[in-house]
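User: Can you recover a sequence for this backbone? Please restate the input before giving your answer.

Assistant: Of course. Working from this structure:
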């Protein structure tokens, strides 16, 4: 075990970072490029453990020295990237987008990005990856969390069990981590992706190389290198859409990277990795990794459609310019000048706390909306998701209308009924009454039905039962709605599954009747929300909100005809009508198409989109339906509005 420079490892770093960039820039060009991050973990396990064990063996190891070295290597470039990304967000982003970026900024500086992204991935309206400006920093957070425990583990093992027992301890830790990852992946794949305990086995493979190093015959070294390269390349060139995120599958590229490191110093085939082009990219790989995602992220906020080859080449060139500059003027600056430990630590604390403080201020102050013009602010408010008028959206749910007054209505269902908060809010304020919706995004809230997704079933079951029990103890009118076509297959009370639309309609009809009976039957008023009128083109409201300061608008979608809409909505609405016909005295049916459609169904009013995305109403759309359906809503609530 020697602490010598390995140019082939820099070459392997180059392969890893180029694979990640290619995957993020053009996913279908290198579908397995995401394994570059896993290769980085193997490299880190090898190099970091080598440095620790050599220092321990020479009786020169110091925790303070170890963490100072890691901080000098990681923090300057990380802080620069985070600060630059946040600054661009301040200049360009809408308040909601800046608020989201501010939260990412705080998590990145505190090295908890992976945990925060895991927590948020469990939310129904979780941001897509292309809406997260610092998403790539999750891997650095996981690595920094590894650094917190790994030196102590190696040191305790060496002192208590002896150096010769370290491989056994590392093997046991790696096996436990792999088992944890496999079990976690079956329950929560996002946790297996983001959380460090599910990644430690990758670091352990790098550590294992240290204890397998020996002098190989050239042919043996070449064979090891060839097998390792093949293991990596096989998964780099996966078919589009095939992502081996299962931990067992990740053993293949990680094991391949370990074999490349094991043989690279001796293999004749490894000369390509040590060649100047790859070695040079490897030297700037950290800065290149840091800058590549924000570069792609900001460009995608302000361009439409897929990128062409010239755009991709230009972005790659820009990334290399930024990375080279960061390497020379940020990374190397702290290596050349090497300020004293006290000055360095003080500087990191001041800079880190300043970034976190500024980001928290932006978050607490709602993304600094004063940056928008009155016209932009008005449009932003109208084009948010229809539930935006809520006074609180959290584990406690959503209050709307005159929130301090008695409740006139309760909402029961998922986001396809929660979107009507925008319609109900102004009506209830005029009536001086309140409304409430539970935090039930993505949940089936009808008696006896569950989603076929086990994770969602576990998350929603307690909320559903608690909500139904609470509602059964009162007589407030209830609005019921679901994404009627969004839960196939449905799980019935006897555990069987139904998947055709006719079967699901029958299951919904039975479940609605059972739910109404549990909640008061004929003694209570119910409003059923019919099938949603879909938008004719795919849009993502969050992505347009992000770039509002640049004037990027939602595209104008073609209007669909009423006949086209009814081809989709007829069977659902007929099922709901049957329920209505059996309960004429206390059940009302609201069909969105009756208020959006004449011969055609509109999706804009006064150049404002009525849709937040291709399925949900915006505040403007919810209010549009609410204005037109106001007599029906007032009659359902039980007042004329006088």
């Amino acid at each position: 075990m020697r602490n010598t420079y390995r140019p082939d490892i820099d070459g392997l770093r180059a392969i890893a970072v180029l694979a990640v960039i290619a995957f993020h820039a053009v996913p279908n060009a290198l579908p397995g490029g995401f394994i570059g991050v896993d290769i980085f973990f193997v490299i880190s396990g090898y190099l970091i453990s080598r440095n620790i064990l050599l220092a321990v063996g020479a009786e020169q190891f110091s925790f303070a020295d170890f963490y100072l070295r890691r901080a000098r290597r990681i923090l300057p470039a990380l802080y620069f990237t985070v600060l630059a990304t946040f600054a661009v967000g301040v200049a360009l982003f809408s308040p909601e987008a800046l608020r989201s970026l501010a939260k990412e900024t705080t998590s990145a500086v505190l090295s908890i990005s992976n945990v925060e992204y895991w927590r948020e991935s469990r939310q129904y309206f979780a941001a897509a990856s292309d809406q997260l400006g610092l998403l790539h920093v999750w891997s650095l957070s996981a690595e920094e969390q590894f650094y917190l425990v790994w030196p102590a583990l190696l040191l305790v093992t060496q002192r208590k069990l002896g150096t010769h027992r370290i491989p056994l301890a590392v093997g046991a830790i790696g096996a436990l981590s792999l088992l944890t990852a496999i079990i976690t992946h079956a329950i929560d794949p996002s946790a297996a992706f983001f959380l460090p305990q599910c990644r430690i086995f990758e670091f352990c493979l790098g550590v294992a190389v240290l204890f397998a190093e020996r002098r190989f015959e050239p042919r043996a070294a070449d064979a090891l290198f060839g097998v390792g390269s093949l293991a990596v390349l096989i998964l780099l060139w996966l078919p589009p859409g095939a992502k081996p995120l299962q931990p067992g599958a990740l053993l293949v590229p990680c094991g391949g990277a370990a074999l490349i490191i094991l043989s690279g110093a001796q293999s004749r085939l490894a000369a390509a990795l040590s060649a100047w082009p790859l070695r040079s990219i490897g030297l700037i790989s950290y800065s290149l990794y840091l800058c590549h995602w924000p570069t792609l992220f900001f460009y995608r906020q302000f361009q439409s459609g897929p990128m062409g080859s010239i755009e991709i080449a230009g972005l790659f060139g820009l990334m290399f310019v930024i990375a080279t500059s960061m390497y020379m003027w940020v990374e190397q600056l702290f290596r050349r000048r090497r300020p004293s430990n006290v000055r360095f630590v003080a500087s990191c604390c001041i800079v880190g706390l300043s970034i976190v403080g500024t980001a928290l201020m932006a978050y607490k102050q709602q993304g600094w909306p004063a940056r928008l013009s009155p016209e932009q602010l008005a449009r932003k408010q109208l084009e948010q998701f229809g539930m935006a008028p809520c006074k609180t959206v959290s584990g406690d749910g959503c209050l709307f209308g005159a929130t301090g007054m008695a409740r006139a209505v309760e909402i029961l269902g998922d986001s396809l009924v929660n979107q009507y908060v925008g319609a109900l809010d102004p009506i209830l304020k005029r009536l001086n009454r309140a409304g409430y919706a539970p935090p039930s995004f993505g949940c089936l809230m009808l008696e006896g039905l569950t989603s076929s997704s086990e994770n969602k079933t576990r998350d929603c079951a307690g909320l559903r039962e608690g909500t139904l029990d609470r509602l059964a103890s009162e007589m407030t009118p209830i609005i019921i709605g679901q994404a009627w076509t969004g839960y196939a297959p449905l799980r019935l009370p006897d555990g069987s599954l139904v998947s055709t639309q006719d079967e699901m309609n029958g299951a919904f009809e039975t479940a609605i009747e059972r739910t109404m009976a549990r909640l008061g039957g004929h003694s209570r008023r119910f409003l059923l929300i019919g099938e949603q009128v879909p938008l004719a083109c795919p849009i993502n409201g969050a992505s347009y909100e992000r770039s509002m300061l640049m004037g990027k608008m939602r595209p104008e979608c073609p209007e669909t005809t009423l006949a086209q809409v009814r081809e989709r909505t007829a069977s659902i609405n007929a099922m709901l009508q049957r329920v209505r016909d059996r309960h004429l005295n206390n059940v009302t049916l609201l069909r969105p198409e009756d208020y959006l459609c004449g011969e055609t169904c509109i999706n804009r009013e006064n150049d404002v989109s009525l849709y937040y995305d291709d399925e949900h109403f915006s505040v403007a759309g919810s209010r549009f339906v609410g204005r037109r359906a106001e007599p029906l809503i007032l009659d359902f609530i039980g007042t004329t509005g006088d």
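That completes the design. The chain has 26 helices and 13 strands.
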